[in-house]
Write a structure and sequence with these properties.
Helix content: 55-70%
Number of strands: 13
Distance between the termini: 61 Å
Radius of gyration: 32 Å
Oligomer: single chain
Structural class: alpha/beta
Largest sheet: 13 strands, mixed
Number of helices: 39
Length: about 900
């Protein structure tokens, strides 16, 4: 039955055309569009959006007057025009009408019904922008502008995205591109936007530079005026340089002259630290200190390091401030300076230097392998800093935390601190910290495969003229563009890098060049690759891994030109990399990429059995003979091989991918013909490396399948020798601010020994690792912290040790031998997530457990509900009853999906099995 309201709407929709026809018979035909024109004029006049839509009527320029900050209720939209547009299936018009009203959900639903086109994607980007999804907006707009570089709406919307991300110089450049198109109204507003953004940004730079230069001038010129206004407006910048000015003061009179500036900075920051400091310096014996100060000032003026002799003299004379300044400027020197620096900072008793002490101690703890101590130290220092007025120093700690988490591949946390740094630096007008934030944000975005944002941050960094190197940003940008499958644009950036006088022809240049060779070769490529290889083969600081990576680059480069020689070099790379420690990251990257190159090249040649053998060798598992799928993705290329129930081989090779696999729907990766080959298998082994490894939608949930990895090296325990370890009720560290999980109490099982339960404060990493050694079943119910893409971030949060260590990480698990060949159940959010980078090993927790001797590992690749414990327990019981793990997972999943529509998360439970 049609509801009354809907009847009324359709009656109106049907009545209006009849009425319009009657009116048209009485009036001149030229006036017929009046209703439609009025509709769009009214929509534009009341438009609530700043984005541009590609519908011709919706995009006519209208000036936007501010509403005084008061929300203005929307006028009801007339239904007649909408009904007419629906009758002629003008979904784009309806979407535009809703878009102008800011009704983005409605607009998106109608846009999805329109045919794919650059215009539709530009409008969808406006929807994403309105929702704050800058990553999706940039991805859509990059695709649009690759096809239509001068589409005004896309350029305008991309400028808005950049502006909202704070990337104001790039936004200004994009607005200027729109202005040059000469559109009525839009051109004038675009130019005004560009001018305002550029001036506001450059004004921050001018203020920072002026404050810094005015303070440094006190070192160069004793008659320079004190920067009192700068001290009030930018106290952090001035204070950072002020210490150097005092150290460089060559006489008592000069030191006394600095007191007014010290008092002004104390007034802003509170306390009397700087006034007391200057007064202590005034009391020093300048017959000795004067020479030290002159030497210190000279090193500052020349931008050189501090001579070792100056360190010794300052230590002997007791001029602690000069000694501390010299120590901090030689932090990369002898190790003895670390303890001396810490001691001098303690004597100074100045909170400005506290973060320096914390940073240097954290560095030492990281080098010692106790990263959790460094994490606690940074958080403690940041908490104390926030209780002071030293905002700039707090931002420095945010920078350190962002870099710390970035090095650990905990990218989500790195990005969180980088964003705080980015916002705070702009607010405080700390230009140098803005540049630091841009660089970190570019790296973190790239690490989580948000290539559009990574490029945007790098472009802003370049627009600010931040690089001391001409070639470096072009090489970085070229690699990002290659990863995003934009080879033509990547090639242009390599050409720009080569035109720079400082092009170092480094490994990243070589890696990008080697990949572009198969689709976008150039006349100078051979000479470039020779230069890269030469640079990586010479030099006192280069090691064996550099040579290995150089061999890989040569092999990858030659594979398309001389297959035999290229393959020989890649196999030589594998042999040399295997001889190096597994922890050698560069050698391991060359190893992984060599296997990937060989496998995809074999697929290109139709040698599908060879593909299976190569992937089995890479994964360290026996070559399967039936019911298996080998899957490899390398940039634009995909190779898939299915082995049927009778060992029949069916292969598929494709090199036409246009979108990076990071964003692809892997449920469509395996063609139907290969799925049919596997359909009658009772279970399927999947051989896959990153970025395919860990994709739980690779095969349908109705099929029993698992990823195969590694081989068992120790004896299997007898069936009766079972020992079940359960870790639950963990007390997480307060600094992580994680909610308490419900208590999980394992049920007793008839005929089985009670489980070994570790909970509460007992569930520490060391105790869990010790009890895992001979367990035959391991269940961990805890919080998981992982990055959405990088497996190095995989960790389970346990109760902290006395020394603060709380994480069960993949690298730690890999170092321990599991003699009981256990089945492991990781009932922790996202504990199964793994890397999506081609060059990285599948270094997730499941892979680490397999390496240590586990028989099988089940883990979720998404966040899971509290009921997940029951799901994993159901799988465990099926395995106990003798069902193979892959079949048990499939059957339990199907049972949950059949009785609860909210159980969709079960499709994202990963199973990795060892070879029997």
């Amino acid at each position: 039955m049609v509801k009354p309201a809907k009847k009324k709407l359709w009656a109106l929709a049907l009545a209006i055309p009849v009425m319009a026809a009657g009116v048209a018979a009485l009036k001149p035909r030229a006036q017929a569009p009046a209703v439609a024109d009025t509709f769009w004029v009214e929509r534009r006049a009341a438009a609530r959006i700043e984005a541009r839509l590609t519908h011709a009527e919706a995009d006519r320029y209208r000036s936007r007057a501010p509403a005084g900050g008061c929300p203005v209720p929307a006028e009801p939209m007339p239904l007649g025009p909408l009904a007419r547009m629906e009758a002629r299936e003008d979904w784009g018009g309806i979407a535009a009408a809703y878009g102008l009203e800011g009704e983005w959900n409605q607009a998106a639903s109608f846009l999805e019904r329109t045919p794919a086109s650059p215009e539709r994607d530009s409008d969808l980007a406006a929807v994403a922008l309105a929702k704050g999804d800058f990553e999706r907006a940039l991805r859509l707009l990059d695709g649009v502008l690759a096809v239509k570089p001068a589409l005004p709406q896309a350029l305008w919307n991309r400028a808005l995205v950049f502006r909202e991300m704070g990337l104001t110089l790039r936004a200004s450049e994009l607005f200027e591109q729109v202005a040059k198109l000469g559109e009525q109204g839009w051109g004038r507003e675009a130019h005004a936007q560009a001018l305002a953004l550029r001036e506001a940004t450059l004004e921050r730079q001018r203020q920072w530079t002026a404050a810094r230069e005015a303070t440094l001038a006190l070192v160069r010129d004793s008659q320079a005026p004190l920067p009192m206004d700068a001290a009030r407006q930018m106290p952090g910048t001035v204070r950072g340089v002020f210490y150097e000015v005092v150290r460089a003061a060559e006489s008592k009179e000069r030191a006394v002259a600095l007191l007014p500036l010290a008092k002004e900075l104390d007034r802003v920051h509170g306390g009397s630290v700087l006034t007391d400091y200057v007064q202590r310096v005034v009391k020093r014996d300048f017959s000795r200190r004067g020479a030290l100060a002159r030497q210190y000032a000279e090193s500052l003026r020349e931008g050189q390091g501090v001579p070792e002799a100056l360190l010794d003299k300052a230590r002997m004379t007791g001029d602690e401030d000069i000694y501390l300044g010299a120590l901090m400027r030689t932090r990369n020197g002898p190790l003895r300076t670390l303890q001396d620096t810490l001691t001098s900072i303690q004597r100074a008793n100045d909170p400005w230097f506290t973060d320096v002490a914390e940073r240097d101690q954290a560095r030492r703890e990281i080098n010692d392998g106790t990263w959790w101590k460094a994490e606690q130290r940074y958080f403690g220092a940041l908490q104390r800093c926030r209780e002071t007025t030293l905002s700039v120093r707090c931002l420095e700690l945010e920078r350190r935390l962002a870099m710390f988490y970035g090095d650990m591949q905990r990218v989500s946390e790195a990005e969180q601190h980088a964003r705080v740094l980015w916002a705070g630096a702009r607010q405080l007008r700390e230009w140098d910290l803005e540049l630091n934030a841009l660089e970190i944000l570019s790296h973190t975005s790239r690490s989580r495969n948000d290539l559009g944002s990574a490029r945007a941050y790098l472009e802003e960094w370049m627009a600010r003229g931040a690089s001391i190197s001409c070639s470096w940003p072009h090489v970085q940008l070229a690699h990002l563009l290659y990863l995003d499958l934009r080879p033509d644009a990547a090639r242009r950036e390599l050409d720009l890098a080569d035109a720079c006088p400082d092009n170092p022809m480094d490994p990243m240049f070589g890696a990008t060049l080697a990949e572009l060779e198969r689709t976008n070769s150039g006349p100078r490529d051979a000479a470039w690759m020779k230069a890269v290889s030469s640079n990586m083969s010479t030099g006192a600081t280069l090691g064996r891994s550099d040579h290995v990576y150089s061999r890989y680059l040569e092999g990858r480069f030659l594979l398309e030109k001389d297959r035999a020689q290229g393959e020989a070099l890649l196999r030589d790379t594998l042999a040399q990399a295997d001889a190096l420690p597994r922890g050698d990251a560069l050698a391991r990257e060359a190893w992984a990429l060599s296997y990937s190159s060989l496998a995809t090249d074999a697929g290109r040649a139709g040698e599908f059995s060879k593909v299976v053998a190569l992937m089995a060798a890479q994964l360290g598992t026996p070559v399967p003979t039936r019911c298996a799928l080998a899957a490899s993705v390398h940039a634009e290329r995909t190779v898939l091989v299915a082995l049927g129930p009778q060992g029949e081989v069916k292969g598929h090779y494709d090199a036409s991918r246009k979108e990076a696999f990071f964003h692809a729907d892997s449920s469509r990766l395996v063609p139907e013909a290969l799925r049919q080959t596997l359909a009658s298998c009772e279970r399927v082994d999947v051989l896959a490396w990153a970025p395919v490894f860990g994709r739980t939608d690779l095969l349908p949930p109705e099929l029993a399948w698992s990823f195969r990895l590694g081989r068992v090296t120790g004896p299997r325990p007898p069936p009766a020798a079972t020992r079940r370890l359960v870790v639950a009720g963990v007390e997480t560290p307060s600094l992580l601010q994680l909610p308490r999980l419900p208590t999980w109490t394992p049920d007793a099982e008839p005929g089985s020994a009670p489980p070994d339960v570790l909970s509460g404060s007992d569930a520490t990493p060391s105790r869990v690792l010790a009890r895992m050694a001979d367990a035959t079943e391991i269940e961990i119910h805890a919080h998981g912290i992982t990055d959405p893409t990088l497996s190095g971030a995989s960790l389970v949060v346990l109760s902290p040790e006395v020394n603060g260590r709380y994480a069960l990480t993949a690298d730690v698990v890999r170092e321990h031998r599991l003699t009981g060949a256990p089945t492991v159940f990781l009932a922790a959010c996202s504990a199964g997530r793994t890397t999506a980078l081609q060059s990285t090993e599948p270094f997730s927790l499941p892979a680490a457990f397999i390496d240590s001797g586990a028989r099988a590992v089940l883990a979720s690749t998404v966040d899971i509900p509290d009921a997940a414990g029951r799901f994993f327990d159901g799988v465990r019981r099926r395995i106990h009853a003798g069902t193979p793990a892959a079949v048990a997972l499939r059957d339990e999943r199907q049972a949950w999906l059949a009785r609860d529509t909210r159980a969709g998360w079960t499709r994202f439970v990963l199973l990795v099995e060892n070879a029997d």
